[in-house]
């Protein structure tokens, strides 16, 4: 086992290019720094540093060893932090990325409950319309919709939101209620940006699948809340998650009317994502809190009535205190 202090000293000399500067950083005599480096080289069996003009630079063996020495130090620090947290309260900084469609109502309430339970956790909350890059072990994301295959994060599906067609009653009184998906081509459409540019696949439990060619949307928005506002304003028909419509209708009853209620689009998965690294207690506490707070009316992840699996379009029938940035 390598001397961890010697590894620290070795990496410091690489940063500063000087044993004198390293001695000042650690508060040690320069002779002690030199001795620890010589002992390390003796243990490794290779010269790791050499002098070039007025700087200490790594040898070829030193360049190779630098990568491993840093990995050892990082693992040691992770282990020290993990063991330290076992005897400490849940505290520290936590960054949360949440899809904008999940913020209103449910997530805001869960945030209030979480910070009340863990008053020493400081949270930075970011709402997103595009999946962010998650940097650092103190970052957790709750996402609605597909996740690109190239994303290398640990994922857990919390539930699924079924989706249907909705319009404002005044719009339907003026334009008429569609009786079949093919009639949607004669209606105005309110599109969530990127949601139905290639057409829309709807499925019926008896009639099967129907691919709809939609009219060009006069209004395209990047937030579900704005899409709902546009539909309520009478700009056309749009595709919305039933759960979000239910929440909105609680405060604004009668403003969204279902169209073709027996036809459904592919559901949207709600996923929990975080880096595939050991997580601090504050992150683990938040994940457990969210798992326990999944709404009962989210469709289960294994079986749903009238739901299509996301991505492939296959229809599966069942058996009869914080800063906001």
Helicity, as a percent range: 25-40%
Strand segment count: 16
Write down the overall geometry.
Answer: elongated
Structural class: alpha/beta
Rg from alpha-carbon coordinates: 28 Å
Please count the helical segments.
9
**Strand percentage, roughly?**
25-35%
Average pLDDT rating: 85
N- and C-termini, Cα separation? 44 Å
Order of helices and strands: HHHEEHEHEEEHEEEEHEHEEHEEE
Low-confidence stretches: 302-325
Give the biggest sheet. Answer: 10 strands, mixed
Walk me through what this model shows.
- The chain is built from 9 helices and 16 strands.
- By secondary structure, the chain is α/β, with parallel strands linked by helices.
- The longest helix is centred in the first third of the chain and has 27 residues, at 60-86.
- It is elongated, with a radius of gyration of 28 Å.
- Mean pLDDT is 85; it is low at 302-325.
